[in-house]
Design goal:
homodimer; 377 residues; TIM Barrel; seven-stranded parallel β-sheet; two-stranded antiparallel sheet; 11 strands
């Protein structure tokens, strides 16, 4: 890392033992392709399950900064990952709005008070960030835990939030859904109400992410997990417009350092150009997108993050290696013909499955590092 | 219809009271945009639920030709639909392979003997079509019921099958899935076994569709409901390659009449060009695809079918009308600048929801007919 660290000039990157993730996000030269995994701190790790057991409940874990820090660091201790991501849930913001988030065993999230009528919509407000203090405390705790004696971090810490539309899906449906009937009914029937929800969500998400940045998050990611269920047209009006409203309010720097903004829309490949045009630094891609084509389309505007099918991790280590190499080769050598650099952050195309054999992740991470070094000059 | 019916020359279309659907599939001039709805015979109709009740079970309904005919015709009696589609299930073929299909109340399909190991894969065979006689009998019964005294049908009858990959998903998972872990694990871990399943499925689907054509189906549709969950690369190798294997074996004509082939891949918008290149006549699109862009890309090769979000039907009739017009306007006037015609069959982007208010469907169908007439010269 020393070589590239010494060449950082134009863009200000914080001092880190491993800054490859931030460099890739900002399309600066890298020594290898950095890798992290969505949901890398999670149920597939026995040490996570042990901490979760001690916490008593998922929200007990998410709301205890020391425990959230503990599980955030667990995958970094096992694997040579190039970024940490705050352990939290994407639904903390609507919970802070008073919707009453809970997780029943073996089921997904549930809201006690879903937003289904005009009165509920009108009552929505950007929550007081004190309600989310546990998140910002966790960010600070993790940053300290990642730092060495001189205050230099091992790897950068990513903060995150659900996108306004994705939060609205859960807020109206009251939990997960397989057809998005309630939220789409409101969208098609009462677009005025949907726009109100999304406006409040956008402002809340922006404030939430900015407060994470102030607490120490060194990059932030907007998870638009359900943008891909929208129709063309509706995606632009109800999804992307509010992601843009978030991005327009986000801090681009903190303490003089650039804070990369990542937008991930599952199923958003058809709208890649429009997502890149939001002004984000990095676009996350799921496995349906061809990385070579994506780079040709928007690689001069944004870095790309992704995009291995998480189910590849159920194959043998040799097969995982072959698939990881194929993803890296599809992106190609980061150096462009004109000497500039394209940015690639290796990731899965969606969260890692809870059933993943933990030892398979090592095969993936190590292959990404080793093979991507061969794609540098 | 009289004007355009009299101009049919180059392509042979069977005599029908309403041949607009077949004409649109074959990119011949039409008087209006024909419309039918995926799952148009289904639970949202009280008359369907009454017949289903009498049948005792879903499979009881699907396997009784008279009852399958009855529910096939129900939506035609309510709405001015331009095509009938055989009432059946996409999983009849693996059921005939001996996997033991059943439908538990309130749940999706289940196979008693899912295909999960090498022995089960090796035992798979193209089933004897006598096992599926109830389907072909239903096709004949429906054709007779659609015919007037002179043997001229009201509208054409569409036959269908699941795609090889979509069938494989159910066969390996044993039912529905939200992560496709088992089928993808086999695909990534034992691609040889997956190719064997898909080869048998493709040959079985081709034979099944050809036998439907011989029994009277006037167009056939391959439902690749789960092609969109595949990674780029895997879609081509495990999805499209076997859809192509089906298409290459399908009858293009029967009794001198052209039989249009429709391929619908939910979530397949990124692969539109490759799907069109299979040689099918019509590509079905879900609501994420922009029809204007799709037509510009492949409208000179294939007709397009789609693509209203089924959830639009939960809005008010006025809102449904506006959204239906927007879909028609997005496709644009069928006549091309060079005088040739592009083909558009209006449909939903996926099956109609069981919770749809039946009266809302009238607003949709009538608007499609009225507005599309204004898009002709």
């Amino acid at each position: 890392m020393s070589a590239s660290t010494s060449t950082q000039t134009a863009l200000s990157i914080p001092p880190l033992q491993n800054d490859q993730f931030l460099r890739a996000c900002l399309r600066m030269p890298t020594d290898f392709t950095p890798v992290w995994l969505m949901r890398q701190a999670g149920r597939y790790l026995p040490e996570y399950r042990a901490t979760r057991e001690r916490a008593g409940s998922f929200m007990g874990l998410a709301t205890a900064p020391d425990l959230a820090c503990e599980v955030t660091l667990q995958p970094l201790d096992r694997y040579a990952l190039d970024a940490a991501i705050l352990f939290s849930d994407i639904l903390t913001v609507p919970d802070a709005m008073g919707l009453g988030l809970s997780f029943a065993t073996g089921e997904g999230p549930k809201f006690a008070s879903p937003v289904r009528d005009e009165a509920a919509v009108k009552a929505l407000r950007v929550p007081d960030m004190n309600q989310l203090k546990y998140v910002f405390d966790a960010v600070g705790t993790i940053r300290r835990a990642l730092s060495d004696a001189k205050g230099v971090g091992r790897v950068p810490l990513i903060g995150f939030s659900g996108s306004p539309w994705t939060l609205a899906c859960y807020m109206v449906e009251g939990g997960g859904s397989d057809d998005y009937r309630l939220v789409k009914t409101m969208m098609y029937q009462r677009p005025d109400l949907m726009h109100q929800i999304l406006a409040v969500n956008a402002d809340a998400v922006a404030l939430y992410l900015n407060t994470q940045i102030e607490a120490g998050a060194q990059a932030v990611m907007v998870f638009d997990s359900w943008g891909g269920v929208l129709a063309d047209g509706a995606f632009q009006n109800f999804g992307l417009a509010y992601t843009r409203r978030v991005l327009s309010q986000l801090k681009k720097t903190h303490n003089g350092h650039r804070i990369p903004h990542i937008v991930f829309t599952k199923g958003g490949g058809l709208w890649l150009q429009e997502i890149a045009d939001t002004g984000c630094d990095v676009v996350g891609l799921d496995w349906t997108m061809n990385l070579d084509k994506a780079r040709a389309q928007v690689g001069h505007q944004v870095a790309l993050q992704g995009n291995l099918d998480p189910m590849v991790l159920f194959a043998s280590p040799e097969q995982i290696q072959a698939q990881a190499k194929a993803v890296l080769d599809s992106f190609g050598r980061p150096r462009n013909a004109d000497g500039s650099h394209a940015g690639h952050v290796f990731n899965l195309g969606h969260g890692i499955s809870q059933f993943t054999p933990p030892e398979h992740v090592s095969a993936l991470v190590d292959t990404v590092h080793a093979h991507s070094r061969t794609l540098r000059d």
